[in-house]
Amino acid sequence: MNTRLLSTDPAHVDASLDLAAALLREGKLVAFPTETVYGLGANALDEAAVRRVYDVKGRPTDNPMIVHVHERAQAVELMQEIPLYFSELANEFWPGPLTMIVRRNAAVSDVVTAGLDTVGVRFPDHPITRELLRRADVHVAAPSANLSGRPSPTDARTVLTDLSGRIDAVLDGGACPVGIESTVLDLTGDTPTILRPGTVTREDLEDVLQTHVAESGFDAERPRAPGMKYRHYAPRAELIVFAARPEEEMRILLSNNLAAAAASGRRAGLLAPARFRSCGDAAFRDLGDGTAVDYARHLYAGLRALDAAGVDLIFIPGIPPAGIGLAVMNRLAKAGRVG
Ligand code: TXA
Ligand code: MG
Hints:
By secondary structure, the protein is an alpha/beta fold. The chain has helices at 13-25, 47-57, 72-76, 86-93, 110-113, 127-136, 156-163, 202-209, 247-263, 292-308, 324-335; strands spanning 4-7, 30-32, 39-43, 66-68, 98-103, 118-122, 140-141, 169-172, 183-186, 193-196, 214-215, 238-242, 268-272, 283-286, 313-317, 337-338.
């Protein structure tokens, strides 16, 4: 199969969106940008298409997919009942990087939900995605557009690196502004519970709901978001993350470890805020100014770039696991070892 790369330059965007929407409706697989990461979409009503998504990603079939919508009513169509808090959350955070887990009705296929009686719904905040979903006018099941276990792609070229020849098209919307996946919030119990942290933080949710929001053990043995149990986001190189500490200590730690790697003949990569570049001799990729937002935006592309550079190990200085930093450190803990 020849995977088509569809441009969204002003001269092409209209035809690209029409084609991508038609392909989705016909049961073809189309990768598309969102504000978080690229998704690999299939018509959620077409079970054969959804099965192909599991297939081409090598995704375990017990890991459910999120259904993407272009308006709130399209999400409500899938629900058994509208849960408490849904409307308030949708008012505040939709469109945006918040996935809500709700009780589903019979309109949703078991293939999408891996047999669960719940479904994740998300209304993405990206102009290209919104227009694609509007024109397709079907519910679109979409996991991240990477091979299972690899870091999520944040640009179209990276989607092709993983999936070229296996999917029908990629809609090229440039780099994703957020860079890590949406917050997954379970609304099916008495207490809203974050199953996967993201850039919509617990504090953001509590501010709006004025109620306690729980976090399920993201690293527990039996996580409630089935996807959280798999090794994830991992580069090929060994990844070592240093827990946050004062900057001077972090510099010394990085310098010493880079020197030790060089002495043992291992090629090291350093993925860090630009000011750490001088810490030693390494393939370097920067994480902007080093805010949690910068980390999120540049993390996956940086890991993949260092992998492509052929390093044996990658060092990353960690950040405090609070707010958006919690989401960043959650991904890093899954990708490597935090020391
Ligand atoms: O930002 C995102 O959420 C991206 C973009 C493409 O929208 N999508 C994404 O999908 O990250 P995926 O499949 O890579 O991750 C979905 C996560 C998995 O951990 C999955 O187990 C969990 O959401 N999930 C989906 N449906 C669920 C459900 N009904 N109950 C519990 N967890 C669910
Ligand atoms: Mg994923």
